[in-house]
Specification:
Layout lengths: L4 E4 L5 E4 L2 E3 L5 H12 L4 E3 H8 L5 H19 L10 E3 L3 E4 L4 E3 H12 L2
Parallel strand pairs: 1-7
Antiparallel strand pairs: 1-2, 2-3, 4-6, 5-6
Length: about 120
């Protein structure tokens, strides 16, 4: 499967698919969540850790709600109608991550090129 999305982190957060580009997100923290998950992809991240990183001032119930809203917004962007649920955003009640098969990032490409050049 070719990656559905290209997530660019250098020079500001951008999400691209074909000719479509998104640079604005529901909230700044939604964008920060996407950037964190993309940078650390592949990987699953504990919901509690993400809440602590992005909403440290919130009581736990409010932090869980904020994370759920951010994930819903990301799903709406990355899994539009016609894309099966869970294709890009992989989450359960304990962890959240992005499917590395469904996306590519400029950071991962840079790191791969760097590693190749160092050999």
């Amino acid at each position: 499967m070719d990656p559905l999305w290209r997530i660019e982190l250098f020079g500001g957060l951008r999400v691209r698919q074909g000719g479509q580009e998104t640079t604005h997100f529901r909230t700044r923290k939604t964008g920060a969540l996407l950037a964190y998950l993309a940078y650390h992809c592949p990987g699953n991240h504990a919901r509690e850790v993400l809440i602590h990183l992005l909403w440290p001032e919130c009581i736990p119930r409010r932090g869980h709600h904020s994370l759920s809203m951010a994930l819903s917004s990301l799903r709406h962007l990355l899994e539009p109608p016609g894309v099966p649920f869970g294709t890009v955003v992989v989450a359960n009640h304990l962890t959240v991550g992005l499917n590395p098969v469904a996306l590519t990032t400029d950071v991962a490409e840079y790191e791969a090129a760097w590693q190749s050049a160092c050999r």
